Amino acid sequence: MVLCAVCAAVSACTVRDAVGPGAVAPVAGTWQYSSVQVAPSPAQTDGTLTLAVASDGSISGTAAVVERVAGQADRTLAGTVSGQSLDTGTVEFTLTLASVGRDHVAVLHADTLSGSWVVSAGAAAGTSGRFTAVRTGS
Fold it and tell me: CA–CA distance from 35 to each of 4, 42, 67, 133 (Å)?
């Protein structure tokens, strides 16, 4: 019963409450990124993310990827990453490629980030998918 009360109290806290010294997700480094677009049509994006994390949990970085869409020529894209560590195991960031921001939410397990993304503005709004990124260097 006490365990249930503790679980309920912890889940009632917002993720933002965990931000502070020592609560930053350790995501700085180089990551092999792979994304599958599920809506509105299938596409694959693979490449590299290079991330830096400041002491306040802000995330910045760069991306170099290749986007593959069936029936179209592959596109090589470079972009930026900006976001925030929500706690020691969760991050949110926007990956901007070809002027389109993909808003990501990810969970960190060991050296793997995984989660989902969505485009929430512009002509591509509603485009969404899931991704994984595996750390390849620090």
Answer: 37, 10, 9, 9
State the Cα–Cα distance between residues 57 and 71, nearest whole angstrom: 40
Provide DSSP, 24-58.
-----EEEEEEEEEEESS-EEEEEEEEEEE-TTSE
Domain definitions of the chain by residue range = 19-137
Residue 30 and residue 136 in contact, taking contact as beta carbons nearer than 8 Å: yes
pTM given for the model: 0.82
Class of residue 3 by CB neighbours under 10 A (exposed 0-12, middle 13-18, buried 19+): exposed
d(CA 85, CA 91): 4
pLDDT 10s digits, 24-70:
999 999 999 999 999 898 999 999 999 999 999 999 999 999 999 98
Reference 85, options 66, 112, 110, 104; nearest CA is 104
Output the pLDDT for position 11. Answer: 35
Fold of domain 19-137: Lipocalin (2.40.128)
